[in-house]
Here is the input.
Amino acid sequence: MDPKRLSREILYRGKVFDLLVDEVQYPSGNKGRREIAHHPGGAVALPVMDDGRVIFVRQLRYPFGERLLELPAGKLSAGEDPREAAGRELEEETGWTAGKLDFLASLYTSPGFCDEVLHIYLATQLRPSPGGPRREEGEATMTLEVLTLDEALALVERNKIKDAKTMIGILLAARRGLPAKNP
Amino acid sequence: MDPKRLSREILYRGKVFDLLVDEVQYPSGNKGRREIAHHPGGAVALPVMDDGRVIFVRQLRYPFGERLLELPAGKLSAGEDPREAAGRELEEETGWTAGKLDFLASLYTSPGFCDEVLHIYLATQLRPSPGGPRREEGEATMTLEVLTLDEALALVERNKIKDAKTMIGILLAARRGLPAKNP
Here is the structure.
């Protein structure tokens, strides 16, 4: 009953995603075209400090021209384990390393046209990395903001945080409860 | 301090999204390329029946080849108000009309490379539409599933619901409380 793929063209190979265009045949017999933004997937860290506060990054998001408050995250490298990627992105973007990374959830950002999957990990036992952050060119103006979970939740509820992965991470963490503060 | 756009090329005009490639100059002086999946945005309905249960659609998502459980949603038409679009998509996909549509939240699905914004509305005072659903070709195998909010929350918590807008809608509705059941 599903549309059958008749052909596929790779119209563009990008740095972040590729554009694929398939010709398909629907169960009715009609033919159609399906466009896919093909993305390698990504990993997200929800970094909780020993005092229970959460580390966010604020960064310019080029498609919107806005500086958004988000959880640290980034694309998976080829063959990279999402858990390792979450730890790597955390360290690169914030300068903190996680002693523990616990899976929270996977999510499909926009499954109608994009195959991106993001994997969120709760990152705890945070320690400053000796080298500090190592940001990419496009991340040069990234800054850190540290909020309590309640403060972050209030921003989600007031819709001041609009990034999907960040909304989901905070809302899920609020339901599950963060790890108890260290003494 | 933000990257400056030097030029823009529209590499593809699609049915669902366009591919834009910009040449930019970073604050460092270095030049780079930014790819944008340009999307018109969309509207999402969180439809609550008079008995408090929520109407979902299950539909094949072509990029994944999976049948996902989601809230009814769709692209905005040119110039269309998101609230009207949420009501229209609800009716087209489920065959129910909403007497009331209350804004819940906007979200950016993947702001690193895509400018898609989705607007979620709580849809209540539902009545069957005389004509029933009017689905598009790609939606021919769509089916409806009706769940209590608690059942839906359990699916989000067990990560059986993976669609970002649906996770966010259900988690926010759980925090805000759904409208009281009608007598």
Summary: Chain A has three helices and ten strands. The mean pLDDT of chain A is 94. Chain A touches chain B through 64 residues (CB under 8 Å).
